[in-house]
Amino acid sequence: MFFAPTLLCLAPTNRVRVLCLSTGDADGLGAVRRSELVASALSLGVRDASDVVVVDDPRLPDSMSAPWPRDVVAEYLARYAADADVVLTFDRGGVSGHVNHVSLLHGARLFVRGKRVKLWTLTTVGLLRKYSSVLDVAVTRRAARMVFVSDWKGVRTAQRAMTDCHVSQMRWFRWGWIGLSRYMVVNDVEEETGR
After folding, report:
1. Which of helix, strand or coil describes residue 20?
2. Are strands 146-149 and 186-191 parallel, antiparallel or unpaired?
3. Per-residue pLDDT averaged across 11-30, rounded?
């Protein structure tokens, strides 16, 4: 839902691994959502199912209100991203303000401290830009340092990654997301410096 343009750009020439720190089990669908995420990542170019890790840890509840402990997030990054050159996660806005997304940033900051690992974050934009689809590309290109833009084929691939792979998450409002969200078309990322 958020990183498709980046994955579509980087995966063909780089080893990209996806670490998801929740099965999304708030509705009791954790096992289903785990397999859906693997299928989605593979459809977006991640090379092997073993490059997609989904964690199920009671210290990291799928919740809109419970922040995750940054040391636990850092612990999983140390386990699964120890040899990474770059970690990419959400910025302090978490795209949608989701407290779990924001917690990832705090844990990633702790993980990279004192390491030669670069930390990059996906930029959160305001509501109007968030739902301006392809129209946001021009604004983003002017403002951002690193931008990943999908062509129409990439946008359709991202949309199918949701509709065909994340079937359990396809509620009525997700159709609006996949049709209007700029995150299906463009990602701009920024390196965290001076942590």
Report:
1. strand
2. antiparallel
3. 90
* pLDDT band (50, 70, 90) for residue 195: low
The residues pairing with 19 across neighbouring beta strands, listed in sequence order, are: 53
Q: How confident is the model at residue 144, as a pLDDT?
A: 67
Q: Which CATH number fits domain 4-191: 3.40.50.10320, 3.40.50.720, 2.40.100.10, 3.30.70.2860?
A: 3.40.50.10320
The two tokens of residue 29 are 């669908």
Can you give the residue ranges of every domain in the chain? Answer: 4-191
Distance CA 83, CA 59 (A): 24
Task: Give the other-Cβ count within 10 Å of 192's Cβ.
Answer: 16
Give the tens place of pLDDT for each residue, 137-147.
988 987 767 99
Output the pLDDT for position 111. Answer: 98
What is the rounded CA–CA span in Å between residue 73 and residue 96? Answer: 19
